[in-house]
Amino acid sequence: MNVLIVGGGGREHAIALALSRSPLVGRMWCAPGNAGIAELCECVPIKATDLDGILDFCRREKPDLTVVAPDDPLVLGLVDLLEENGFAAFGPRKCAAILEGSKSFAKDLMARHGIPTAACRVFDEYAPALMYAETCPIPIVVKADGLALGKGVFICETREQAVSAVRSIMEDRLFGQAGARVVIEEFLTGPEVSVLCFTDGETIVPMPAAQDHKRAFAGDRGPNTGGMGAFTPVSCYTPAIARQCMDSIFLPTIRAMKAEGREFRGVLYFSLMLTEDGPKVIEYSCRFGDPETQAVLPLLRSDLLEIMLAVREGRLKTVPVEFDGKACCCVVMASGGYPGSYRKGLPVFGIEGAEKLGCTVYQAGTERKDGMLVTSGGRVLGVSAVAGTLKDAVDLAYRGVWRIAFYGAFYRQDIARKDPAVHRSASAETPAAAAPKARVDWS
Ligand code: AMP
Ligand code: GLY
User: Is the CB of 283 under 6 A from ligand 2?
Assistant: First the structure.
């Protein structure tokens, strides 16, 4: 089967590599791809959000399956467009992708169906939102309703921060239309876990739980980024908690979506906070996570294409979805200055050295210029290593990172280091867990 992958980051590189191992896969294209993906796929210069361009490509090349990886084309309805034109696509339709596309939709759905999440208030008007920010309990979390490249969330520890967050989102429109509505949410504490699940709307199969590192610098300091590294397994996500999540969150979510005529088929990604009152949903995403995918897919033993076809066709329970019980750590190497401004076009050296050690290097912001591999984005590479223990996976991933160089490269030195499986003397408690608790009556 010939497959088109839509997207061009480290996540898409990991998807391409997993698909390339399927005996069912013939030709692979990627739109737009990157230099690493180009070693596996024919890259075509079409942006992931250029829906018409992708449809034209499908009309020309007739892929048997199009895998839509990023959030924006899913929320814009690329899967619907392709399917309406007779092309098979993997990913949720627009009416289901809204679970990520609108935080207020997700919050309402959870409220209607009793799915545990932070209590919240939703505002469409600036004045009442501002008034609420001036009086609400602190700390508080202020979120733009729509997609904002992962940057639309403000954790506000002071009243001034809350007021300024509402102003930035609703009045200054920092995130454009995504800020027409604002969600003001109870501040939760506890370790965070990302659980990516395959679902055909009826059956839901979780992949091994992972943990992302969203802040730019070690110790969870600095600005939020797309994600600076991820690892699996996560010690605090015990089998008992996994069962609780299945019963109180995963199954209720897919049943709720189906009951509301929005059957979700694709990868549903749950950002969870393991609070003292049990696991709660921080947010839903309608796709594979980045960089969680680079930590989870290397452990997949089953055929990814076979799983994707089964998801689309509503027969997920008939195919094996097996992961080996190993650990994986992915360390992201970013351009100096990221997530602010950074230089591009800088030569990248040493990937082969890292691969010789046994690491897999997923490329994100890279391109080839005159035959030379150079940087072209903020997150440049994700260096992943698999091992029998998390400690060995972390050690190997960092040994891989040390083999690679580009001018200004930076990475977090502490990926997975808080997990007790890596560093038993360190506290498993996150800074958030250590923060003061606000007990608030939200009724
Ligand atoms: P998001 O982009 O929605 O995943 O949010 C970014 C980060 O903000 C999350 O990874 C959490 O660390 C934090 N966050 C979001 N919502 C809450 C909440 N209600 N309480 C505490 N932290 C939150
Ligand atoms: N790892 C965060 C995300 O994919 O949204």
Answer: no
